[in-house]
Amino acid sequence: NEATAKRALAAKQEAEEKLKAANIKIETLTHQLEEKRTEVSEEISFTLIEEIAPSQMTSYIDQLSSIRSDHDSLITAYITEKEMNLNVGTSKEVMKEIDQNSQYLLQKIKSDTGYALFYDRMQMVREVIVPAIPFERSSVETASSFGTGTLKNNLTKDINVCILAAHAGESLIGISSDKTGFDEDMIIRSSVKAKHTKGGFSQRRFERLRDEDIDHHVEKVRNALKNMLEHATVEIDRIIICGDTVLANYILENIDTDIPVMERNIDARIEKHDIDSIIRSIFSCRRYKL
């Protein structure tokens, strides 16, 4: 009847209003939660980020090795780049062992070589080292001291590298077999116009000429690099590129090689009086304090 229909309609309208109010409240709470998450995320940051030169790593490892715990509370983990990015296997296992803030910070670390974690369950030590050379396998152990052997072996591992520090107009190529200096090196220079800031047709023409200059430089570097690789007196284990890595990858196009290529995000300025500084930067480790 009509009265029942009216009551049903009123009940429906009341239910819809309550649902609408509930949805608004949910949206408000969700927004507030996101704001809180953002605030907390901004508050959590690394205590320290620094580059450690190869010459300083021995002292750093000795310090870590000297730490002892009576309760087997020291966690050592070595994580490969693959497991790190997928957060599977040992990487996932490690995440369960550490505090939430450290978990958050570990996920912020970018590395194509993996990382080593040295962590004390009492949170007195929370150190991460990103090596220059990738770790080959993942592992985790809990003991009364930190297991620094894998890191030591990584740092002392013999490796022959070909380095390409690419810049428009001036690039460096070289081979190093001892991680301290170049066995042979070459700086290739070309005349490349500086970037144009004015607009219009003249800018388009200028940029076309600049692109031609860069292509010419790329061809010069590519030919020199091909020649260096073909006549290398040691077997090259890796090609390491730095500087303008987009340009470096362009240079490597059409070079037929199975040698693995690795990028290093370093200050790759070519210092004429100290070109070995690029090698020191390449083989430095990055340290994070969580």
Please explain how this structure is put together.
It is a single chain. With 290 residues, this protein is α+β, with helices and mostly antiparallel strands. The protein folds into two domains: 109 residues, eRF1 domain 1 (Translation, Eukaryotic Peptide Chain Release Factor Subunit 1, Chain A, 2-Layer Sandwich); 121 residues, Nucleotidyltransferase, domain 5. 44% of the residues lie in helices and 21% in strands. The chain has nine helices and eleven strands. The strands form two sheets. It has a six-stranded antiparallel beta sheet. A five-stranded mixed beta sheet has the order 8-7-6-9-10. The mean pLDDT is 90.
**Radius of gyration, taken over Cα atoms and rounded to an integer in Å:** 28 Å
**Tally of DSSP helical segments:** 9
- Shape descriptor reads flat
Order of strands across the biggest sheet?
A: 1-11-4-3-2-5
Can you name the CATH architecture of the largest domain?
A: 2-Layer Sandwich
Kindly state the mean pLDDT as a whole number?
Answer: 90
Largest sheet: 6 strands, antiparallel
N- to C-terminal separation? 71 Å
Question: What would CATH call the class of the largest domain?
Answer: Alpha Beta
What proportion strand? 15-25%
* CATH homolog superfamily of the largest domain: eRF1 domain 2
Helix- and strand-based class?
A: alpha+beta
Write down the domain tally: 2
Sequence of secondary-structure elements = HEHEHHHEEEHEEEHEHEHE
Helical content stands at 40-55%
Q: What oligomeric state do these chains adopt?
A: single chain
Low-pLDDT segments, ≥5 res? none
CATH third-level topology of the largest domain: Nucleotidyltransferase, domain 5
Number of strands: 11
